[in-house]
Amino acid sequence: MSMKIYTKTGDTGKTGLFGGQRVSKSAVRLHAYGTLDELNAILGSTVTDTTLPVSVKTQLLWIQSLLFQIGADLATPLESGANILRMDLSHATTLEQWIDSMETQLSPLTSFILPGGSPAGAKLHEARTVCRRAERWIVELMNSEPVTEAVIVIVNRLSDYLFVAARFVNHKLDIPEAIVSIPRTVTQMLSHTHCDPKSHLSKLP
């Protein structure tokens, strides 16, 4: 007989961690690995794009599996004593090697760029922002509980990888990057928005 997808054990708003401890579904730990799950789903959508370079697709599939491993690490408190594979810095080294390889084909970045470009590039930028959110939750967790040290290094490096991968994909698809020029004075701001100063001021309270 097959197992049912629903267990009803979480109907009261709590869930079980590896090791047996039950915690609120709103706990910081749940936000941390839940956001990694969200990131994984975005990458799953990204790899369906047929314009994605084969090398990037292969890397993203590896990263998807890695995210499951990181999630398992975060779902297992260090004090639980559960027998799982903890993260190590070799994963961050792999990401660094991929970043370095892609950057050899990219022009140096001297300005901010708008997230976007191709559909695949835009998805990778979206993934980067979710990765940064996961990183913030992991840091929040680290402020109150011990966490495998390599986890935050890997996730930090992953956000760097996703940024470079987005640029790399757009470069391969011959889609130029949209440069952002940030105004530093009111005059520059008005020239960027093509506003009439008088009409702009007339709308102030």
Provide a brief overview of the structure.
The chain is mainly alpha-helical and 205 residues long. Helices cover 57% and strands 5% of the residues.
Question: Topology of this structure?
Answer:
Blueprint: E1 14-16, E2 22-24, H1 28-46, H2 54-74, H3 90-103, E3 112-113, H4 119-142, H5 149-172, E4 179-180, H6 186-193, H7 197-202
Keywords:
7 helices; Hypothetical Protein Ta1238, Chain: A; disordered C terminus; 5% strand; two-stranded antiparallel sheet; 4 strands; mainly alpha; 205 residues
Describe the protein in words:
With 205 residues, this protein is mainly α. The chain has a single domain, classed as Hypothetical Protein Ta1238, Chain: A (Up-down Bundle), CATH 1.20.1200.10. 57% of the residues lie in helices and 5% in strands. It contains 7 helices and 4 strands, in the order ββαααβααβαα. The strands form 2 sheets. It has a two-stranded antiparallel sheet with strand order 1-2. Strands 3-4 form a two-stranded antiparallel sheet. A hairpin with a 5-residue loop joins strand 1 and strand 2. Helix 1 runs antiparallel to helix 2, helix 1 packs antiparallel against helix 4 and helix 3 runs parallel beside helix 5. The longest helix has 24 residues. The C terminus is likely disordered.
